[in-house]
Prior knowledge:
This protein is mainly beta. The protein is 9% helix and 50% strand. It contains three helices and 13 strands. It has helices at residues 21-28, 53-57, 117-122, and strands spanning 17-18, 32-35, 40-50, 66-80, 83-96, 103-110, 127-128, 134-147, 150-157, 162-169, 172-179, 182-184, 191-193. The protein has a ten-stranded antiparallel β-barrel.
Amino acid sequence: MSVNQVSTGKIGEGVPSAATYEDIIKNLFQNETIKNDNGYDLKIVFARAKLSKKQKSKLSYPDGFTPINKYLLYQGNVYQNKKLVRTNIQLVSFISKNDGFIYAYYFDVLNQNPFNLSKLRKSHRKIKLANSAVFNVASYLEVYHNINGLTTILSLSNTEPYASLQYSVGRKYYYSSLKINGIVDTHIPITKLTGLSKNLK
């Protein structure tokens, strides 16, 4: 299914409009830097990913959803006093369910050597994952809306049940988490956006 086929479903009355794929990428998948007061810094880079047919066949989705063959690589590097201490790699797979909206489903990527963040940002080509890469469902789903011209994420997680609302304004990214006991202060500083990777432009 192509991106142009996603919006064939009918959106119910009173439901916010669906965001376009182009606006989703431009507004929500810029690279990020988060600086914490405790000496830990997080740098996140997104880049378009290329999967083999075999790798695509290993991805499982919730019932009713269909992949639209658009994938992003997410790599987050955690630094303490400028020294790399941890790397997290995920795959973002965009999917649809014939309701007019674009969704994303996340997978943890194992058995994959970390990429150089600078090379990820500057590559004009899609990033190939190792043949040995293993994909584990992260049980995290996002749906994208256009609310009065603002592209937003509504996310749901099953591993630790919560929902979040996310959006960007200017060069800053905002994140609010909602659990059963209400809005939760996640103590995440406002994220600084550092622009799109070359292969996302």
